[in-house]
Design brief:
The complex is a heterodimer of chains A (about 400) and B (about 55).
Chain A: E1 2-8, H1 12-22, E2 28-31, E3 46-47, H2 50-55, E4 64-68, E5 70-74, E6 80-84, E7 92-94, E8 97-98, E9 101-104, H3 106-119, E10 123-125, E11 128-136, E12 139-147, E13 150-161, H4 169-173, E14 184-193, E15 201-205, E16 215-222, E17 225-232, H5 239-247, E18 253-263, E19 272-273, E20 276-278, H6 294-313, H7 319-348, H8 352-364, H9 372-381, H10 383-392
Parallel strand pairs in A: 1-2, 1-13, 2-10, 5-15, 13-20
Antiparallel strand pairs in A: 3-9, 4-9, 5-6, 7-8, 11-12, 12-13, 14-17, 14-18, 15-16, 16-17, 19-20
Helix pairs in contact in A: 1-3, 1-6, 6-7, 7-10
Chain B: E1 2-3, H1 13-17, E2 23-26, E3 29-32, H2 41-45, E4 51-52
Antiparallel strand pairs in B: 1-4, 2-3
The chains are: A alpha+beta (about 400), B alpha+beta (about 55).
Chain lengths: ~400, ~55
């Protein structure tokens, strides 16, 4: 068997890479190890409106559960700060802003993307695991896959690894992709039914006793249903422990448990090789503060699919040629991801009382009218925050 | 590393951090290949506590 492009992984990164490669008239095979695309859900399912601009798709009610118009941040002492429509540039869980967008049903959305890709010609194999890469003189030229006990070799000019946080393929291609445990946000989430919540508002809770090294969230899905989850880092107790604690305050019923790890290390140094590209969580294309990866993955996957198709048409799939993918996605996202990583490192040093002080400051001052003098007076009273600010600047 | 399959949620967070790349997530099980040094990196990120260092038992 031989294809122009093999895409490994059949969710956001995989379906979008294969969709845009197939649209550019190359033969594409997408391989997904699970028997059902999009399941189990490992996501709080919030994304920005602009994801759909990237995909050139009209958002559909089939997979949109709710529209988000604002967010509320809860400090450890219970103080709240509201970020409302118009206060940010319209991105949710991306580029550090958290205010407008959609909460999706990813089980439906991921499958929909795979269907769109299949419609334009992508072949899809499910319940098939890629076990290894085939390499010839250092160049990746296919995969070894296993389906129902049968092992097969499938050749391809380009392999795109969209195999998520659990990716082993980048490493097999020669790219160092091993993650530091301190950079992985360990998450557990319930889909809860029977909540009394604002259907258009995201909620974020911070504090060492709520979610050490991360935050807890409520992402509404309509009709009193929401994804309620917790992400922790470097914690002695598990994410599940904090989830149970967090949800104990709600009189609501769980109908689904989702878990997952989010790579918050910022992007990998290299995302291409001879005959090989890596996208999405596998490439660290996730915002290190929010943990949002849907939008960035979608954009990078589109670029990966288009660059792979172009390289095949030019009959040059060397790493020099595929480097274009790396350059294009970094142009769009690298600065933001690096800044976000720097801020995440700074936030790691904030104590609960620092966060409370910040919340108090924002509570008492109009964000758009805060003067330099007020800020300096505040920082003078909080030397830890002043030091962090200096580190950031 | 002791692996409690009943506690596993098959998310693959552990696979991401294994410094010797000894872990693999099949559809609903983690396979630990030979050579595990019980370093505890995977235990640190497991959301459900399915991986337990031998010395913690
Ligand atoms: C709890 C949680 C909440 C989150 N919430 C949000 C949110 O609200 N908004 C947001 O933007 N982001 C969120 N994220 C991040 C977001 O889910 C990811 O960034 C995004 O799903 C990455 O997509 P992907 O296609 O790269 O990887 P994945 O979605 O992980 O897909 C990888 C696919 O590859 C398959 N695969 C792996 N190995 C192989 C193999 N060897 N052979 C064949 N197939 C293979 C897997 O089965 C899987 O289907 C969250 C993550 C978690 C864990």
């Amino acid at each position: 068997m031989k294809y122009d492009v093999i895409v490994v992984g059949g969710r956001i990164g995989g379906s979008i890479s294969s969709l845009f490669a197939s649209r550019n008239d190359v033969d594409v095979l997408m391989i997904e190890k699970r028997q059902e695309i999009g399941s189990p859900v490992q996501c709080a399912e919030g994304t920005t409106f602009s994801t759909f601009e990237t995909l050139e798709m009209k958002p559909s009610k089939k997979y949109i559960c709710s529209e988000i118009r604002g967010a509320q941040v809860h400090a450890p002492d219970g103080r709240t700060m509201k970020v409302e429509e118009g206060m940010t540039d319209g991105n949710i869980l991306n580029n550090n802003t958290i205010s407008e967008g959609y909460v999706l049903d990813r089980r439906v959305f991921d499958k929909y993307l795979a269907i769109e890709s299949a419609k334009v010609g992508t072949d899809v194999m499910v319940k098939t695991t890629v076990k290894d890469l085939i390499r010839k003189e250092g160049k990746v030229c296919g995969v070894v896959a296993k389906h129902l006990g049968e092992t097969m070799e499938i050749k391809a000019d380009v392999v795109i690894a969209a195999d998520g946080v659990e990716s082993n393929l980048a490493y097999k291609s020669g790219i160092n992709s091993i993650k530091n445990p301190d950079d992985i946000c360990s998450c557990a989430q319930y889909e809860l039914v029977g909540l009394d919540i604002d259907p258009n508002l995201l909620e974020f809770y911070f504090g060492r006793t709520v979610a050490p090294g991360g935050y807890s969230w409520i992402f509404p899905k309509g009709e009193g249903i929401a994804n309620v989850g917790v992400g922790v880092r470097n914690s002695t107790e598990t994410a599940y422990y904090y989830l149970k604690k967090f949800v104990s305050k709600f009189d609501a019923t769980p109908v689904e448990l989702n878990i997952g790890g989010v790579p918050l290390s910022g992007p990998m140094d290299k995302t291409y090789n001879d005959g090989f590209l890596v996208v999405g969580d596998a490439a660290g294309q996730v915002d290190p503060i929010t943990g949002g990866g849907i939008h960035i993955t979608a954009s990078c996957a589109r670029i990966a699919g288009e660059v792979a198709a172009e390289a095949i048409k030019e009959e040059n799939v060397s790493s020099m040629s595929l480097k274009r993918y790396d350059e294009l996605w970094r142009d769009e996202f690298e600065d933001n991801l690096k800044t976000s990583f720097k801020f995440r490192k700074a936030f790691d040093k904030l104590s609960d009382s620092d966060m409370n002080a910040l919340a108090e400051f924002f509570e008492n001052n109009d964000l758009e009218k805060i003067s330099k003098l007020t800020t300096l007076k505040f920082l003078g009273k909080h030397p830890n925050l002043l030091k962090l600010l200096k580190d950031l600047l | 590393m002791r692996y409690v399959v009943e506690s596993c949620g098959y998310c693959g967070a552990c696979v991401a951090v294994c410094s010797n790349k000894l872990l693999e997530l099949t559809e609903n099980e983690i396979i630990i290949r030979e050579g595990c040094k019980n370093c505890g990196r995977c235990e640190k990120v497991c959301p459900l506590g399915a991986l337990i260092s031998e010395d913690a038992q």
